[in-house]
Amino acid sequence: MKKPTFVLMCGSSRKGSHNAKLLESVRSRLAAEDAACEVVDLDALQLPIYSQDLETASMPRAAVELKEKLVAATGFVIACPEYNGMPTPLLLNAITWATRGEGGMYAGFQNKCASVVATSPGPMGGLRMVRTMHTMLQDMGAVVITPAVALGGAGKIFDDSGALVDARSAGKVDALCGQLMHFARFQANRDKDDCIVRLINEQKVMGEYGSTE
Predict the structure, then answer these.
(1) Which DSSP letter does residue 1 get?
(2) Over the stretch 69-88, which tens digit does the pLDDT of each residue have?
(3) What is the pTM of this model?
(4) How confident is the model at residue 164 (pLDDT cuts 50, 70, 90)?
(5) Smallest Cα–Cα separation from 111: which of 138, 78, 88, 132?
């Protein structure tokens, strides 16, 4: 049985980012369930602001590699702060580049198990951003896994080491990771299920007098 593979991306490059801490909490829980996780540092990709002229001149190698990682993965998890009710420019630019180049526009997103998490000092925790991303990813063909996780009080729910220590918040993350792994295990082994269905459909049915139909 294949293990699920995930690409993890954080929409914040800020030092000490609460969302980076939250993403690490998700990563550790998925890894404990035997999932293979790769954290992609979006800031380190140094992707230019997308323009069609740049793409036509030369597709950035980092954009090609990001798309390849997403295509190969079972799913992905995004942690991102909320800027004016929206995801950050860093995240949106990376997603835009990942829909360009060779292969289908949404090949890195279609039928992928996807979850979005957020945290912020305010009581809403970035919920508007999470809902915006859910809609965007669904439109791109991703299988968005809920419940929505938007944790308020970011300054109080992590300890000095960055671990998520608030019991209520940890319970929400646990619930999401459980749902994500439930669907991702199926998705990672979907080729086997498809093969079984194909073989069943190809079976010859014995008709009357020994003829096959």
Answers:
(1) -
(2) 999 999 999 999 999 999 99
(3) 0.89
(4) very high
(5) 138
**Domains observed in the chain:** 5-204 (3.40.50.360)
pLDDT digits (tens, 9 = 90+) for 177-212: 999 999 999 999 987 655 544 554 565 544 555 454
| Nearest-angstrom CA–CA distance, 175 and 177 | 6
Instruction: Name 181's Cβ contacts closer than 8 Å, sequence gap at least 6.
Output: 4, 30, 33, 35
Distance of CA 54 to the CA centre of its chain: 26
Omega within 30 of 0 (cis) for the link into 81: no
DSSP collapsed to 3 states, 103-150: CCCCCCCCCCEEEEEEECCCCCCCHHHHHHHHHHHHHCCCEECCCCEE
Longest dimension (CA), the chain: 78
Q: How many CB atoms lie within 10 A of CB 156?
A: 11
Per-residue pLDDT of 6-30, as tens digits, reads 999 999 999 999 999 999 999 999 9
The total of other beta-carbon atoms located within 10 Å of residue 13's CB is: 13
